[in-house]
Amino acid sequence: MYDMSNEMEIVDKIVYMIVSGKYIAHDKLPSENTIADQFKVPRITARKAYERLEELGYIYKKQGKGSYVKDRSKQIELVLSGDVSFSQKMIEKGYDFHSETIFCREIKYNKRIYDYLETDEGDRIFKVGRLRYIDQQPIALHISYVAKSVFTDIDTVGMDITSMFKYYNSKGYTEFCSKPSILSISFPRESQRKLLNCTYLIPLLVLESGCTDKETGTVLEYIKILYRSDCFSYVIP
Q: Which UniProt keywords are given for this protein, alphabetically ordered (predicted)?
């Protein structure tokens, strides 16, 4: 029977050496044979440990050359505030950024979302999903829930929206403030792994928040954002 504890011991040791600075970005790691000898385990155990480290985003492989430490210092610094759009934040930082709207559909009644949007059961709520890319790689999934009573054309124009803030601007809402946010961690489901091109070992930071119009107090959206945790460092103002 395969003993996963040996595999995890190797993973823990190498992660510690990377985090502590013994290995730095682009350092070549010991071969699988060397690791197997060092930990007195079969080579398959060393190979699986390296596979886990790659899935976790700590290392990368060069065909025929071995395994190397991944440069994690290139993570995107993200300020978790709702008064400036994500698109604007990324563009201002100079990233090769683009957004793709992947769905706009009506949801069934959900008391929590309806209450958050301060609307009643007779209203229609649509969710608009946008996939965010940096350097052609998906890094975040933004899902905005909006009420048709506030945005009467959301069902017809939703698939054309790439920036919710620009859409709000076009409706006369120009100054925003964010509602209290909830942060949590989850592991991606299969559909989320496909969208974000990540493995099940990459946790997602889940941010739930909302946006209101400063002038009128109108709740514009309830938002749920799934960030790939290996792509960002986070600043909470």
A: DNA-binding, Transcription, Transcription regulation
CATH code where residue 92 lies: 3.40.1410.10
Q: Which domain holds residue 227?
A: 75-235
Q: Distance between CA 13 and CA 75 in Å, rounded?
A: 23
Measured CA to CA in angstroms, residue 160 lies from 153, 167, 220, 222, 231 at distances of 11, 10, 18, 19, 26
Spell out the alpha helix ranges (H) of the chain. Answer: 4-19, 32-39, 43-55, 86-92, 111-116, 154-157, 164-170, 190-196
Confidence of residue 73 (pLDDT cuts 50, 70, 90): low
Find the range with the poorest average confidence among 1-15, 50-64, 215-229: 1-15
- pLDDT tens digits for range 110-135: 999 999 999 999 999 999 999 999 88
* C-beta separation of 201 from 154 below 8 A: no
Instruction: For residues 184 and 226, give the distance between their C-alpha atoms in angstroms, rounded to a whole number.
Output: 10
How many CB atoms are closer than 10 A to CB 219? 18
Tell whether 45 and 114 lie within a shared domain. Answer: no
- pTM of the complete model: 0.75
The answer to whether 186 and 211 have CB atoms below 8 angstroms apart is no
- The whole-angstrom separation of Cα 142 and Cα 97 is 14
- Tell me which residue of 67, 62, 2 sits closest to 31, measured CA to CA: 67
Strands of the chain, DSSP E: 59-62, 66-69, 76-79, 97-106, 125-134, 137-147, 176-178, 182-186, 204-213, 219-228, 232-235
The residue type at 216: T
User: What's 54's domain CATH number?
Assistant: 1.10.10.10
